Amino acid sequence: MIPSNTLTGSLISATLLICASSFTSSLYAMPSPRQSAALDAQAGSGAPTPSTRSRNVKPQQILRLLNLSFEQRAQIRRIRQETEAARRALVSRLRAAQRELDAAIYSDDVSEQIIVERANAVALAQGELTRRRAVTELHIRRVLSAQQLATLRDLRANARAQISVDRDGANQINSVRGRLRGRRRQTPNSQSIP
To answer: Does domain 4-186 have CATH number 1.20.120.1490?
Structure first.
């Protein structure tokens, strides 16, 4: 049996990783200067503003909403390029650790000690990736003005709220499905509900 604190730590690390990646991934999807110019021209006067944005904002929309200057875009692109190799190596290491953990869990000779070691390796890799992303976000944050930072905070809050709504909706759907399954089992000699 795996100690619950090890699993809890791994789950917390995974949650932090997902939250930290939401902002960084949008910046990694930042368009090139040519694409930026095309997006700006495409947006025209109908560009979304903070008050008109939807709940599902795409990375290009985030960049437009932040209204980054050419210099800011260049600085962020430089930061991304400097950190890309290390980020890729950490992602690769995390995936390998996850594969090793899965292999240990589903092997014929299950060893709790090996599973705990592999879970710790996954947590360590997740932690390093989270630290790397946090430092990258800090460098990028320093490029943003106070207004851009406020806009970014609003976008992040909206994204977290949407994730919560989506999760609550999925939980409600699963609850209804569970009740339906329970009804099918309780009613003998009845036709199953599709």
So the answer is: yes
